Amino acid sequence: MEFTRHLTQTPTTDVERDKVLQNPGFGTHFTDHQVIIDYKDGAWRNPRIEAYGPIMMDPAAAVLHYAQEIFEGLKAYRHADGSVWTFRPFENAKRMNRSAARLAMPQLPEDVFVQALKELVEIDQAWVPDGDGEALYLRPFTYASEVFLGVRPALEYSFRVIASPAANYFGGPLKPVSIWVSRNYARAAAGGTGAAKCGGNYAASLAPQLEAEAHGCSQSVFLDPLNDNAIEELGGMNVCFITKDNTLITPALSGSILEGVTRKSLLQLAQDHGLKVEERRITIDEWEEGINSGQITEVFACGTAAVITPIGELKDGDKVIPSPAKTDVTMALRQELLGIQTGVVEDRHNWLYQLV
Ligand code: COI
């Protein structure tokens, strides 16, 4: 596809951008441009780069009423030679199309998705940070823009990509996070949209998120109450366990869990390192008992935004279950993954894709 460029007349100055890159935080600063592709009359049209800025939207746009919206998250990493790479972008392209199918939205060809990332990062490459654990977070998303209040799949959509320099998702230096067991709210159920990356799933995670924060935790863990409280995932990331017999366990994709690209990559890296890997049903009781008996030696959260973050403790009502202080395997996996992404560890699975 040929992208047209309508570049901003008011680019951020080097001084302002450097100030942002000194302390990028997460999700609060955005680059100078965005990608836009319209969907109308059954086809994707007019791929272009425009200045980053507000969306003018009709109040009756379908997304504002029935939440027909999907998104992705991936990162662009700066390598020592100045080149910029992303990680397994076709996995995100495929997942976005699976999400689109579930939300009755049109699919975008995978190569157009990846080209859109490349076009944006090429223009805004100066925004890719190079600090430890930092990257340019890319946020592709599609929403129903048709002006219509009937409940049916919209006929018009907008696909966009925006980009935001990012450091640690949880803020500050990396430290173990506390997790709250969500007993009052479920995230998703069989047959629902849990496996799709749609805004609605995250909206549903916010009341439990407030509950978690009220108990001093930074994320909730969601359970499947109809299946013996099998662990599903955290509000915005997957969860993994390391056992004393060198096994990495993560909940099996049940149809209501998001298939994380980081999750999938870690399953491979763990195997490369001689760990056994089990994708299976694991209940909250097994988590609690495993910690108490010493069978589970490490617990961590993983996702594009979270990378790999150790879980320091689990709070379940009045019970506090501390995770063991050990984080060796967690940190080794984190280092290897970040090493591949930033070009200092050999990319033996060909996961990297050069953007600039
Ligand atoms: C990601 O890890 O990219 C996510 O989408 C999680 C969250 C920030 C919504």
TrEMBL record:
Q: What class of enzyme is it?
A: transferase
GO MF entries? branched-chain-amino-acid transaminase activity
Keyword list, A-Z: Amino-acid biosynthesis, Aminotransferase, Branched-chain amino acid biosynthesis, Pyridoxal phosphate, Transferase
Report the pathway entry. Amino-acid biosynthesis; L-isoleucine biosynthesis; L-isoleucine from 2-oxobutanoate: step 4/4; Amino-acid biosynthesis; L-leucine biosynthesis; L-leucine from 3-methyl-2-oxobutanoate: step 4/4; Amino-acid biosynthesis; L-valine biosynthesis; L-valine from pyruvate: step 4/4
InterPro entries given in the database record: Aminotrans_IV, Aminotransferase-like, B_amino_transII, BCAT-like_C, BCAT-like_N, BCAT_family
Cofactor(s) of this protein: pyridoxal 5'-phosphate
* Gene3D superfamilies, alphabetized: 3.30.470.10, D-amino Acid Aminotransferase, subunit A, domain 2 (3.20.10.10)
- Top-level division of the source organism's lineage: Bacteria
A Pfam family found in this protein is: Aminotran_4
Q: Which reaction does it catalyse?
A: L-leucine + 2-oxoglutarate = 4-methyl-2-oxopentanoate + L-glutamate; L-valine + 2-oxoglutarate = 3-methyl-2-oxobutanoate + L-glutamate; L-isoleucine + 2-oxoglutarate = (S)-3-methyl-2-oxopentanoate + L-glutamate
Family membership: Belongs to the class-IV pyridoxal-phosphate-dependent aminotransferase family.
Q: What is this protein called?
A: branched-chain-amino-acid transaminase
